[in-house]
Automatic annotation (TrEMBL), chain A:
Keyword Transferase on entry: yes
Name this polypeptide is given: Protein farnesyltransferase/geranylgeranyltransferase type-1 subunit alpha
Cofactor: Mg(2+)
PROSITE patterns per record: PFTA
Pfam families the UniProt entry points to: PPTA
Residues covered by region (Disordered): 1-21, 341-369
Biological source species: Xenoophorus captivus
Keywords in alphabetical order: Magnesium, Prenyltransferase, Repeat, Transferase
EC number, as in UniProt: 2.5.1.58, 2.5.1.59
From TrEMBL, chain B:
UniProt keywords, alphabetically: Metal-binding, Prenyltransferase, Repeat, Transferase, Zinc
Protein name, per record: Protein farnesyltransferase subunit beta
Taxonomic source organism: Xenoophorus captivus
Catalytic reactions of this protein: L-cysteinyl-[protein] + (2E,6E)-farnesyl diphosphate = S-(2E,6E)-farnesyl-L-cysteinyl-[protein] + diphosphate
Keyword Zinc listed: yes
E.C. no: 2.5.1.58
EC class name: transferase
Lineage start: Eukaryota, Metazoa, Chordata, Craniata, Vertebrata
Length: 369, 273
């Protein structure tokens, strides 16, 4: 799989402008005047003379034809030859490393390398070192992380993983592949013990790291769960503290809501009051939205029409339309679709007519039935 | 604030250079760029050597959006090339001689559908394609992307897309897939790549679109999903971010904004709109 599914670290158009970049292997000799190490094409290597290279079969009038450099074409011509023979040898194994270096997204090469690792009973500890280096170089590639996972499974040894992933995250704290690998390791090998602490440290470094907030939710839901009132209280307190420090941090507000929404936001005694207090000094569109959701939840869970909540919701909706302008249409839409539930004439049998009706400006007096 | 300031500087430079108030789509330049790329690409594209059907799809899709016709000879060449990317065991690979993989399979099938000729449709070996999809199916309802490969929600979308386009939707093929995709909707309201991870625009699109194809989108918490996706639009830049508290990126104008028509229809069918 290519890195096309995630923004690659270097887009092809950027690469095209770097005409003067030369790969290390193309240097004839290193800059310190030591013995020159020339790169030799596979077609010129004596030990490969028995193998007939297989050129790529694009067909007679190919499209999206890539102007491979000589080295690339040579390596892959020999890769195709090995694949055709299903050759399982040391030299094949060595070639896969060259092929990977030229295109680490070639999943066929990775698959073949894994076949060889098993067929040749290769040292998997050495392979761990290899994949560690590759990932450090190209941390945003699907194949490298999947390969690491396979090796860890074969070794049945996750002992290096948490530290390795932590190191990757120290360079990019939101690397999705890294987090995916981390969650897999933790769940597979039951390494929950220190993860909450790890998450908290990341949040100290960057309280806006949404990946860390997600990991927090992951750890707690798989350990204590969110049913334990002591846990919920602790988490609410934690959120509010983070909000006081960084009021415009959407992650903290989303976490608060996400944690409580199943039981109902209005079910937490005292929370509404605390948020109303924060509104005076630490207001944000996220706070207003949270209040809006609280009132909506209160309305949904009560059987009578609660005028206070309804009015508060209206006020908040208008405030959101003013303060969260980019989402103005959304807040208006919410107002319309909820009106069909709680106000006006109740749910309509004709949703199209209802929407058309509501999209025509209605005077203030008519809105409250 | 720092990010907004940096973007503000870039935009004001752009405005000084360009006299018109609105950016203009440079149709002719895009057309030339795409036309050329459909035939030749520089060695900078070596990193996409395992994604050549994608290159076909992206280019053909763009040309279609620009309403530029594909000359029949070119269309035929694309068909033949993609036929060379088809695996003898079913599905399409990133290039001739490579193993089949769901992503280039999605790209190849959709590219052939854009071409839409008899020749294009006849390239696809539908029976083998079904065998290929079955070979990737996991007991928990998910699909791996290729034999010996990784699982994430992209695979469900790729599989559902090609199965519905080629009319090979075996009733049991997507058994449990719906529930697996649903388990990817998280506390944020969006969907993650696999259950447990952060909600992400690309994966959310794949998950929701797959469910739409399977006719099961109403099983999502649509309200929570809508709230999540509208919150991904950046108040300053106007574009979308892929995840909460991350930067805006043009690609999310597709993955994220593209969710809105899907949600609109789902909510309309629901009676909410």
């Amino acid at each position: 799989m290519s890195s096309a599914e995630e923004p690659s670290s270097e887009a092809p158009e950027v690469k095209e402008h770097k005409e003067f970049d030369v790969e290390a292997e193309d240097h004839f000799g290193d800059s310190y005047g030591a013995e020159p190490t020339r790169y030799i094409f596979y077609r010129d290597r004596k030990e490969w003379a028995d193998l007939e290279p297989v050129p790529q079969d694009d067909g007679p009038d190919p499209v999206v034809k890539i102007a491979y450099c000589e080295k690339f074409a040579d390596v892959y011509d020999y890769f195709r030859a090995l694949l055709k023979k299903d050759e399982r040898s040391e030299r094949a194994f060595a070639l896969t490393a060259d092929a990977i270096e030229l295109n680490a997204a070639n999943y066929t090469v990775w698959h073949y390398r894994r076949v060889l690792l098993q067929a040749l009973s290769k040292d998997l500890r050495e392979e761990m070192k290899y994949i560690t280096n590759i990932i450090e170089d190209q941390p945003k590639n699907y194949q490298v992380w999947h390969h690491r996972r396979m090796v860890v499974e074969w070794l049945n040894d996750p002992s290096e993983e948490l530290e390795f992933i932590a190191d990757t995250l120290s360079q990019d704290a939101k690397n999705y592949h890294a987090w995916q690998h981390r969650q897999w390791v933790i769940q597979e090998y039951k390494l929950w013990d220190n993860e909450l602490e790890f998450v908290e440290n990341l949040l100290v470094e960057d309280v806006r790291n949404n990946s860390a907030w997600n990991q927090r939710h992951f750890v707690i839901s798989h350990t204590t769960g969110f049913s334990d009132p002591a846990v919920v209280q602790r988490e609410i307190q934690y959120c509010l503290n983070q909000i006081r420090k960084a009021p415009h941090n959407e992650s903290a507000w989303n976490y608060l809501k996400g944690m409580l929404q199943d039981r109902g936001l209005s079910s937490r005694p005292g929370l509404l009051e605390k948020v109303l207090e924060l509104k005076e000094t630490h207001c944000s569109p996220y706070l207003l939205a949270f209040l809006f959701d609280c009132y909506e939840d209160a309305l949904e869970s009560s059987f009578q029409k609660e005028n206070m909540e309804q009015e508060q919701k209206e006020t908040l909706k208008k405030a959101l339309e003013e303060k969260d302008t980019i989402r103005k249409e959304y807040w208006q839409f919410l107002g319309r679709s909820v009106k069909n539930k709680y106000g006006g004439n109740g749910p309509s049998n004709d949703p199209v007519a209802e929407e058309v009706k509501q999209s025509v400006p209605v005077s203030e007096a008519q809105e409250i039935s | 604030k720092k990010v907004e300031h940096a973007i503000e500087e870039t935009i004001s430079v752009y405005k000084q250079i360009h006299s018109l108030p609105q950016p203009m789509l440079l149709r002719e330049q895009h057309y030339q760029y795409l036309k050329k790329g459909l035939r030749h690409l520089s060695d900078a594209y070596e990193c996409l050597d395992a994604s050549r059907p994608w290159l076909c799809f992206w280019i053909l899709h763009s040309l279609e959006l620009l309403e530029e016709p594909i000359p029949p000879a070119v269309a035929s060449d694309v068909c033949q090339f993609l036929a060379h990317c088809q695996s003898p065991t079913g599905g399409f690979a990133g290039g001739p001689g490579q193993h089949a993989h769901l992503a280039p399979t999605y790209a190849a099938v959709n590219a052939l559908c854009i071409i839409g000729t008899e020749e294009a449709y006849s390239v696809i070996d539908r029976e083998k394609l079904l065998d290929f999809l079955w070979s990737l199916k996991q007991p928990d309802g998910s699909f791996v992307m290729h034999i010996g490969g990784e699982v994430d929600v992209r695979s469900a979308y790729c599989a559902a897309s090609v199965a519905s386009l080629t009319n090979i939707m075996a009733s049991k093929l997507f058994e449990d897939t719906t529930n697996w995709i649903l388990s990817c909707q998280n506390w944020e309201g969006g969907l993650s790549g696999v259950p447990g991870l952060e909600a992400h625009g690309g994966y959310t699109f794949c998950g929701m679109a797959a469910l739409v194809i399977l006719g099961k989108e109403h099983m999502l918490d649509l309200k929570a999903l809508l709230r999540w996706v509208v919150s991904r639009q950046m108040r300053f830049e106007g574009g979308f971010q892929g995840r909460c508290n991350k930067l805006v990126d043009g690609c999310y104008s597709f993955w994220q904004a593209g969710l809105l028509p899907l949600l609109h229809r789902a909510l309309f069918n629901d009676g909410t709109c």
